[in-house]
Amino acid sequence: MTGLVVTGLITLWMVRPSGSDPTTTLQPRIEVVSIEAFHAPVGATVQPGDTLESIARRLAGKDWPRWRTALSQEIDPRALLPGTRFSGRLSPSDRLETLVVTLDLRTEIHLETEGDTISATRIERPIRSEIVRFEGVIESSLFGAIDEIGAKPELAVRMADIFQWDIDFLRDIRKGDRFVALVERHSIDGEFFGYGTIYGVRFINNGKELNTFAFAGADGTIGYYDLDGAPVKKQFLRSPLKFSRITSRFSLNRFHPVHKKRMPHYGVDYGAPTGTPAHATANGTVTFVGRNGGAGNMVRLRHSNGYETNYLHLSRFAKGVRKGTRVSQGQVVGYVGSTGWSTGPHLDYRVKKNGQWINPLLISSPPADPLPESLLLRYLAHALAMLEVMEGRDPPAGAKC
Q1: How many alpha carbons lie under 13 Å from residue 159 in its C-beta half-sphere?
Q2: Rounded CA Rg of the chain
Q3: What is the pTM for the complete model shown?
Q4: 325-358 confidence digits (pLDDT tens)
Q5: Structural domains of the chain in order of their starting residue, each with its CATH number
Q6: How many CB atoms lie within 10 A of CB 176?
Q7: Burial (CB count within 10 angstroms: exposed 0-12, middle 13-18, buried 19+), residue 147
Q8: In this structure, are residues 268 and 248 in contact, taking their beta carbons and an 8 Å threshold?
């Protein structure tokens, strides 16, 4: 005996063929209505301002508290990003009975009612990783070159982060600059999912060649080092803003646009839209945060080796930035604005060394801690093998890279 699978509502009735004799035997007619017709689909896409409660209310109606509780046990509210998709089905009595939450290309959460409870199953598709070699030439911008070779903008941002101590990617980039990158690329079912580790990058900027490779230091943290084993990371970043433009430079005799007279300008102005994050250029301690006359909203940081940095005209301060708190290099300390003596949104970035104003663009930044001797020879062998791969050749026999 074979099993019976019900896929819809079966209706059986008897009909007499058209134009037939009234005494003709009635013929059976069977009509199958898909079961989906009795389990109507529902869906929602997360919009800015949505919460798990608002989504549950839209989808589950009066049953929303139960579904909100079930969702909160499976989804971090921080993962509820605009565009997250919810799709489900209602029971014949119009109660939500199944729900699929698509968090990203890899992860789905399937929920369904089982009596008075809601069960959940998390499904994560396997990620395929491969090492790919990208090579490009800059015609106008790093983003343009990345797009030209078929890579994603994320790769441009990641490369800029690696070289942020040596290259200002708006001020220093030249037409004809070239790069080669060895990158771990992730995909799911053949569709791009993201980049993993960038194992090595060569960047030729205005004729100067920079090579750097990823390597785990003594504490196991991945860092980037040059061909001599010196760390790429330095005490100061080249700029407190990413992908901004310089609108005014350090000068002892600049015409002030507000006061309409010549006076010293002890900082570098970076033009950027209001709300652009301003980053601490070095590890330090907050010594001032607040309103400071013509400087508007300002943050001042004290650093090692006698340095002090100042971030002027901010629209607001970053959460947790208070006098006496420690900040890390690259941490957001505030957001670009136009407070104080300002004619438009920009960041006035100023630096002191031993109490004297200096040109921020001329800081000679010492490098971070080098690799210990116990790791240096291993790194150099690793770098030489990676160089072969970067050149498009196979690494030496026995090399581990």
Answers
A1: 28
A2: 31
A3: 0.65
A4: 999 999 999 999 999 988 889 999 999 999 999 9
A5: 41-124 (3.10.450.350), 133-225 (3.10.450.350), 245-362 (2.70.70.10)
A6: 12
A7: middle
A8: yes
